[in-house]
Amino acid sequence: MLCGPKGNTALTMPQCAVCGRQTDLCELPGRYEKYCLECSADVAASILLTTEIDAATLTGEETSGLVAEFVQVSRRILARSQ
């Protein structure tokens, strides 16, 4: 039986939504994308950091440490996506 647009018989594995690797993927609660293990850890960390930064901002707490960590995680995600 033919599969795919060019009649390729090989089944394609799903790709990570960030880096595009074809490997076992993880799902994060509330997200429809799937990620490899490394990317899922960074995406989860960025979600948590965003929540913590928002909460600290609302209570008037210092956020520079959280923002610095968020920048590091964001850079890793960006580097992996390119």
Question: How would you describe what is shown here?
Answer:
The chain has two helices and two strands; from the N terminus they run ββαα. It has a domain at 37-81. 10% of the residues are buried. The model has no long low-confidence stretch (mean pLDDT 88). It has helices spanning 37-59, 64-81; strands spanning 26-27, 34-35. It has a two-stranded antiparallel sheet with strand order 1-2. Helix 1 (37-59) packs antiparallel against helix 2. A hairpin with a 6-residue loop joins strand 1 and strand 2 (34-35). The chain is 50% helix and 5% strand. With 82 residues, the protein is mainly α. The chain is elongated and about 50 Å long.
Overview features:
82 residues, mainly alpha, 2 helices
Individual helix count: 2
Largest sheet: 2 strands, antiparallel
**What structural class do you assign from the helix and strand content?**
mainly alpha
Radius of gyration, rounded? Answer: 17 Å
How many β-strand stretches?
A: 2
Order of helices and strands, N to C? EEHH
Numbering strands along the chain, what is their spatial order in the largest sheet?
1-2
Average of per-residue pLDDT values: 88
The backbone outline, from C-alpha atoms, is elongated
Q: State the end-to-end distance.
A: 35 Å
Uncertain runs are none
Strand content: under 5%
